[in-house]
Design goal:
- The chain has helices at residues 15-26, 70-78, 113-116, 118-121, 130-149, 159-169, 211-217, 235-241, 254-263, 277-283, 297-300, 315-327, 332-340, 344-358; strands at residues 3-7, 32-34, 51-53, 86-91, 104-108, 153-156, 174-175, 198-202, 226-229, 246-250, 264-269, 289-292, 307-310.
- It has 14 helices and 13 strands.
- By secondary structure, it is an alpha/beta fold.
- The termini are close together.
- The strands form two sheets. Strands 3-2-1-4-5-6-7 form a seven-stranded parallel sheet. Strands 10-9-8-11-12-13 form a six-stranded parallel sheet, with helices on both faces.
- Strand 12 (289-292), helix 11 (297-300) and strand 13 (307-310) form a beta-alpha-beta unit.
Length: 361
Amino acid sequence: MRVALVHDYLTQRGGAERVVLSMRAAFPDAPLYTSLYDPPATFPEFADQPVQVFPINRIPGVRRHHRLALPILAPAFSHQRVEADVVLCSSSGWAHGITTDAPKIVYCYTPARWLYDGARYLGEFRSSARPILGALRPWLLRWDRRAAATACRYLTLSRIVQDRLWSTYGVEAEVIPPPHTIRPDARCTSIHGLEPGFVVCVARLLPYKNVAPLIEAFRGLGDLRLVVVGDGPERQRLKAAAAPNVSFIGVRSDEELRWLYSASLGVVAAAHEDYGLTPLEGAAFGKPAAVLRWGGYLDTVVEGTTGLFFDTPTPAAITTAVRRMATEPWEQARIRSHADQFSESRFIARLRSVVAEVSPG
């Protein structure tokens, strides 16, 4: 059985890219197709096997700024044909439009944000680009819904996205939670200048990640340090507004990330996330989490057992939750046991079963 993998673009180190690595572990001989590929910006494991990249990858600038390619991604995927027995798409709005005669399975992180959550997403673009993107929206809506109709199965990562797929496309998607893959038994590398006992936030620095209220909350937590891991267009603004007990350390390797989780008091996150991956990564090290009571966090955090919720992403609510997380006793064995339920082996086994179910052979 020939399986082909298709992903939107490989230009960053995020949760979706980690899922693709697990898909490659499930189907190690499968070719991987993607529109844009910037090897230094994504996980080095993708260099182990050839990646089939679209012609638009040669356009200057788009690999480092993939949002510039947004108007041309739809036709780029429609014009790319993939030959296989089963095509497995990893999509947040583009890969599901690949052209193939094979059964198509779509693992969807969310319907395209700028089409269905435009007010928040378009805020990340320069004001001069918004009229162009707005003018393209009606055409891309039609394209997106036609592309969704070409799939024989939809899979997704959480209950909130499952509901969103039903309301957007009228499809019933099976929830297969992504695995955490930051192995606590692997090598760690400490970070110079950081003393253990901090709270860690791992997030791309974008508006919807709500890092700003986290930073403001730590003004009232002067005896605790917040370590922000990640980068993005909001970095300079956030750093300028931060108190001295907030450290920005940029993107870090998995070895360093393991040390950060193991040396932390716990994880904090206030984003409107479709999936709560970072609390699971922290849980693999026995660390609790303080997170927003919303979206994917409801699937990955057990209140009172693996972490705490705050109801609004406001500094006051975050301050209270972080203080409780840092002072209450936690059973690390129970937290680790919860993380084990989201193992890569379980993810791979179910994914292989779904592919076998749709295979024409």
